[in-house]
Design a protein that fits this description.
Layout: E1 13-17, H1 34-48, E2 52-56, H2 72-82, E3 87-89, E4 100-103, H3 117-124, E5 129-132, H4 143-147, E6 154-156, H5 158-172, E7 178-182, H6 187-200, E8 203-206, H7 211-217, H8 232-238, E9 244-245, E10 250-253, E11 262-265, E12 275-279, H9 281-292, E13 296-300, H10 313-324, E14 328-331, H11 335-342, E15 351-352, H12 356-364, H13 369-372
Parallel strand pairs: 1-2, 1-5, 2-4, 3-4, 5-6, 7-8, 7-13, 8-9, 13-14, 14-15
Antiparallel strand pairs: 10-11, 10-12
Helix pairs in contact: 1-2, 6-8, 6-12, 7-8, 9-10
Length: 375
């Protein structure tokens, strides 16, 4: 990829695509600014080298120009972090000529998600150079992530560069053994990841609701557990692989809520009227032991319903093991990142990806449009 070393930014206006799709509360206050902070090294480096910044970002999935999807609060927070005023341009036809300017939500523009070339030309007319630092949106071929990069001298920002090199590194040249910890709700969402790691990993540890299609394929009772029917046949084909380890015990609840009746199961058969909501203690300790001996660990997806305190123990134990692991630890964003934050472990891993979907697609070997265009 072309990187910042390939651009002369002094005196230039640089259009920087950032991923500021942050969570907001009902009063439009930012509840987690991690994605904004992740972009700071690139933005500061560009400014230190004489660039004027024009930032492009999206927030949510607006259908029109709904005010709740405005980047106003994001611009204010970025200004606080950079120590400078960040002006918000409400229209592409009226962009102020400031040192740091943020375009209003690019998904307000009708052609953005269609990768419209005419919209890309409007973006390009506003700047001299283009930098993509939005790894979380790099798997989308949108006007601000792909088409505009073809119209201006372009490069990857430091965040995008680090994400790609780290994730490709654990696939191409990992320290052994390579352990993949894969959880979440659906086998079909992770089938590409599982197949990729079957070729490269030494061990794959399965958790979360995605274990139930495996169990059902093996003839176990799953009770009222979340069991993706479409995942049963793919799970049946994967279940015989020696590299794949499944839970050996579970924690069940009557309902999906914190105050429900809780029951520790001696095995993986879930009784009628119950749902599996966490891996059991024996499984968590087994997985922790495997992780402790790994040279490289990749984690994507919780072991259970960690957001419910009575069913958080399995995910917490695995998260603690990953945080303490002596090898290289890479976490693929999404719910895994939320779990690390919940347990106060976000700073204890080597790499915490800012892009859940993008990280999975890169691991699967799929081309990321926002990356390919920078080759």
């Amino acid at each position: 990829m072309r990187t910042l070393e390939d651009l002369d930014v002094d005196g230039k206006r640089v259009l920087v695509r950032v991923d500021f799709n942050v969570p907001l509360d009902e009063d439009q206050n930012i509840t987690d600014d991690a994605r904004i902070r992740a972009a700071l090294p690139t933005l500061r480096e560009l400014r230190e080298n004489g660039a004027r910044l024009l930032l492009a970002a999206h927030l949510g999935r607006p259908k029109d120009r709904e005010p709740e999807f405005s980047l106003k609060s994001v611009a204010e927070r970025l200004g606080d972090l950079l120590g400078t005023d960040v002006q918000l341009a409400e229209s592409l036809d009226d962009v102020p000529d400031g040192d740091v300017v943020m375009l209003e939500n690019v998904r307000y523009e009708k052609g953005e998600t269609k990768n419209d070339p005419e919209l890309a030309e409007r973006y390009a007319a506003l700047a001299d150079l283009y930098v993509n630092d939005a790894f979380g949106a790099a798997h989308r071929a949108h006007a601000s992530t792909e088409a505009v990069a073809r119209l201006l001298p372009s490069a990857a920002g430091r965040l995008l560069e680090r994400e790609v090199s780290t994730l490709r590194g654990i696939l191409d040249d990992p320290k052994r053994p390579l352990v993949a910890v894969v959880g979440g709700a659906k086998v079909t969402d992770k089938i590409g990841v599982l197949e990729a790691f079957l070729e490269r990993a030494d061990t794959i540890l399965i958790g979360g609701a995605m274990c139930f299609p495996f169990f059902k394929a093996q003839g176990h009772d799953v009770g009222d557990s979340l069991c993706e029917e479409a995942g049963i046949e793919p799970a049946r084909k994967l279940a015989g692989q020696d590299k794949i380890e499944l839970p050996q015990d579970l924690v069940a609840g009557r309902e999906f809520k914190a105050d429900t009746e809780r029951r520790e199961l001696d095995g993986v058969d879930v009784p009628d009227g119950w749902m599996g909501l966490d891996v059991g203690e024996a499984t968590a300790e087994r997985y922790a032991g495997v992780i402790a001996e790994a040279g490289t660990v990749f984690w994507n997806g919780p072991m259970g319903a960690f957001e419910l305190a009575p069913f958080a123990a399995g995910t917490k134990r695995v998260a603690e093991a990953i945080a303490a692991a002596p090898g290289t630890t890479v976490v693929g964003g999404g719910d895994s990142a939320a779990a690390l934050a919940q347990f106060g472990l976000a700073d204890e891993v080597d790499h915490l990806s800012t892009g859940g979907g993008a990280s999975l697609e890169l691991v699967e070997g799929k081309p990321l449009p926002g990356v390919e265009v920078l080759q």
